């Protein structure tokens, strides 16, 4: 028999088979009951019914879990083929995309240019505080976020990530979290009502911390269930979506690697309707707390984000081979140092940004050459029409469009 959503099962087979099916699902060998309980929700109202969250380890869920693990291995293998000087700039490009997507999901206005400037300031250790400073620092150092052990850890993430973006009327008014009513509205109707009091919020977050550490549940399932439950709790008036996704990304980063972790919001942003529908179906009474189909949707989104990175890396590694072949040609026999420098610049243009500019200081650091040597090399390349000066202070260069076209389109 096809494994249907319980809602569909009810309408297809009727009440008695439906209740038998719930019993089977919750008591089968492949069932996993969580310690997390939610109130039912229907037509904009919380119900008195309480449901225990559970999922069934179906074949489809098992296959998706394996797919994500295989994708993670592919990403690690592809990253290992990159020159060292490309790895961090490439990661920076991805976190700009992810941060932009995380903002867009919540309707927060930002531009990639703005986020890039903030990231550059952080990398330069510029102490000037800018909008999205905390967001970019959190993504940049995602590997350094420790597993949550205390309730205050949730507030710390909120303070670092989104507190500067929250309107005054939505600032937490409890000891750590909100203390009053909050609801989520899609513009036409209420789609969720958060847990009512700060005491209840703290109790629920304590349960969540213990669940995140529960080794009886597979890691990816545990993290995705935790993401839903955090959104269900809704500990803050605003910023729950962004902090909730970042929270789970930090766990994914430790379990898989940082590239998979920072692909999730990007994938969600491309398919927001699937994400919100997956969240909203869970508390419907006929669903009875089942998380199986939500987990399938979330792992599909995670896998889609990974596959986007894999495709990008494979295409750009093919371009890198072409670039390498070009600079090994006899035309560059007498200009080995110039060829090496230009290969560095073209690879960065391909993997990071085709409009990327590099300062003389950047080129000195990457090439390990003196300022005098770099200036001489760049003079030759500029005269040959391979690069152009785009800034005088600091002196910065960009690969010409003609060279990129000659390399990659011919």
TrEMBL record:
Gene3D superfamilies according to UniProt: Fido-like domain
InterPro entries in the record: Fido, Fido-like_dom_sf, Fido_containing
SUPFAM superfamilies: Fic-like
All residue ranges annotated as the Fido domain in the record: 149-297
One matching Pfam family: Fic
PANTHER family: FIDO DOMAIN-CONTAINING PROTEIN (PTHR13504:SF40), FIDO DOMAIN-CONTAINING PROTEIN DDB_G0283145 (PTHR13504)
Name of the protein described by the UniProt record: Fic family protein
């Amino acid at each position: 028999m096809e494994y249907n959503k319980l809602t569909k099962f009810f309408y297809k087979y009727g009440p008695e088979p439906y209740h038998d099916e719930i019993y089977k699902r919750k008591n089968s060998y492949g069932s996993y009951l969580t310690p997390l309980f939610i109130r039912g929700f229907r037509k904009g109202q919380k119900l008195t019914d309480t449901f225990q969250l559970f999922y069934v380890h179906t074949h489809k869920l098992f296959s998706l879990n394996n797919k994500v693990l295989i994708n993670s291995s592919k990403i690690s293998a592809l990253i290992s083929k990159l020159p060292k000087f490309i790895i961090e700039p490439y990661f920076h490009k991805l976190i700009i995309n992810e941060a932009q997507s995380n903002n867009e999901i919540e309707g927060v206005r930002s531009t990639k240019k703005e986020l890039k400037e903030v990231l550059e300031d952080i990398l330069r250790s510029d102490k000037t505080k800018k909008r999205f400073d905390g967001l970019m620092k959190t993504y940049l150092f995602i590997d350094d976020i420790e597993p949550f052990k205390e309730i205050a850890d949730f507030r710390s993430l909120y303070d670092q990530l989104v507190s500067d973006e929250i309107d005054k009327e939505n600032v937490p008014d409890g000891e750590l979290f909100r203390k009053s009513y909050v609801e989520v509205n899609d513009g036409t109707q209420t789609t969720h009502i958060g847990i009512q009091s700060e005491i209840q919020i703290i109790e629920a977050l304590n349960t969540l911390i213990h669940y995140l550490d529960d080794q009886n549940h597979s890691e990816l399932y545990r993290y995705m269930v935790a993401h839903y439950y955090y959104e269900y709790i809704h500990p803050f008036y605003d910023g729950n979506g962004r902090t909730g996704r970042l929270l789970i990304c930090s766990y994914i980063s430790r379990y898989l690697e940082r590239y998979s972790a920072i692909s999730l919001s990007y994938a969600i942003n491309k398919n927001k309707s699937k994400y919100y529908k997956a969240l909203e179906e869970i508390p419907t009474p006929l669903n009875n707390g089942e998380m199986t189909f939500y987990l399938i949707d979330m792992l599909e989104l995670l896998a889609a984000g990974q596959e986007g990175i894999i495709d990008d890396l494979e295409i750009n590694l093919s371009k890198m081979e072409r670039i390498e072949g070009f600079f090994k040609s006899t035309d560059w026999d007498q200009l080995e140092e110039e060829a090496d420098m230009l290969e560095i610049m073209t690879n960065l243009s391909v993997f990071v940004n085709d409009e990327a500019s590099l300062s003389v200081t950047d080129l000195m650091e990457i090439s390990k050459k003196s300022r005098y040597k770099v200036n001489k090399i760049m003079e030759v390349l500029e005269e040959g029409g391979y690069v152009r000066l785009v800034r005088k202070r600091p002196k910065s260069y960009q690969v010409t469009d003609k060279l990129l076209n000659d390399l990659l389109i011919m």
